[in-house]
Amino acid sequence: MRGEALSSRSSSWPRRWALRGTATMRGGPAGRGGMLLLLLGLTLALLGGGCHPKAPIMPRFAEHDPAEGWEALLRRGDAALESNTPEGWEAALSAYEAALSANPASVEACWKGAKAAFLLAFSGDSSERRLHFARRGQGFALRGIEQDPDCAPCHYYLALNLGLHAREAPLEAPTLVKSLIAEAKKAAALDPAFDHAGPYRLLGRVYTQLPPPPASFGDPDLAVTYLERAVELAPDYPPNRLHLAEAQMALEETESARTLLFALLTGTEDMPYEGSTLHQKARELLERLDEE
């Protein structure tokens, strides 16, 4: 198991993986072009100081039926969230905002609102819409952290929404990515197993996708450390192994990556993942290995 202090190989990140390894969010709202814009923005902003990020959009007071208590509003939001459609996520966001209006101390309404906003930002069909919901998600998460600084889901969904904000606003990205990493580390310290080891998975992806210093904060060796931890905590969640294989490829640990990818294709059921399917993404990574 690698430690943060052992990430000495990051300075020799193989050049042939650099462009491919940083453009892996193909199923996301901005896709390959969005990640390239993020990398360009990071480089320009680090040279020129960057732009101050747009502020989060804090939850607004929502009119609601006083006869419907805040707990009932939470349940309504939960049911809408499970619909797995943008319309359902918008309904969930409205319900959580109403629950928070009925009970401003509800941390649960905050982090679930941040989750609904993240899903809307991730699936948005325009940059304006994606950025709007990412900022709203940050607002919900920050409200929850005000109520409970030790709320791991709040820190986690704050990190995720910061990441989508950075992808849509490349010149604001340096500050946002630093905050993303800090929030993900807080979530990992508080509840590393949340969302199938989501905090470690997120940290691993960030350190895999960004270029190494001095251009940015990338560190594929540290990425492998975090993703190995994610696999230890949630071995039955296939995306953890998919992203571990991707990080191993960035370090030219090709045989380890190939073994993981073959196991994913032969030993797990396919599942929708980031706009395509898990098996499709595993096959794409294997094709990259075969090209070498």
Give descriptors for this structure.
292 residues; mainly alpha; Serine Threonine Protein Phosphatase 5, Tetratricopeptide repeat; two-stranded antiparallel ribbon; 2 strands; disordered N terminus
SSE arrangement:
Layout: H1 15-21, H2 31-48, H3 70-81, H4 86-102, H5 107-123, H6 127-147, H7 152-168, H8 173-190, H9 194-209, H10 220-233, H11 238-250, H12 254-267, E1 272-273, E2 276-277, H13 278-291
Antiparallel strand pairs: 1-2
Helix pairs in contact: 3-4, 3-5, 4-5, 5-6, 5-7, 6-7, 7-8, 7-9, 8-9, 9-10, 9-11, 10-11, 11-12, 11-13, 12-13
Task: Report on the architecture of this protein.
- It contains 13 helices and 2 strands; from the N terminus they run H-H-H-H-H-H-H-H-H-H-H-H-E-E-H.
- It is globular.
- It has 2 domains: 54-59 and 67-187, Tetratricopeptide repeat domain (Serine Threonine Protein Phosphatase 5, Tetratricopeptide repeat); 192-292, Alpha Horseshoe (Serine Threonine Protein Phosphatase 5, Tetratricopeptide repeat), CATH 1.25.40.
- The two termini are 27 Å apart.
- Helix 7 runs parallel beside helix 9 (194-209), helix 8 (173-190) runs antiparallel to helix 9 and helix 9 (194-209) packs antiparallel against helix 10 (220-233).
- By secondary structure, it is mainly alpha-helical.
- Helix content is 68%, strand content 1%.
- The protein has a two-stranded antiparallel sheet with strand order 1-2.
- The longest helix is centred in the middle third of the chain and has 21 residues, at 127-147.
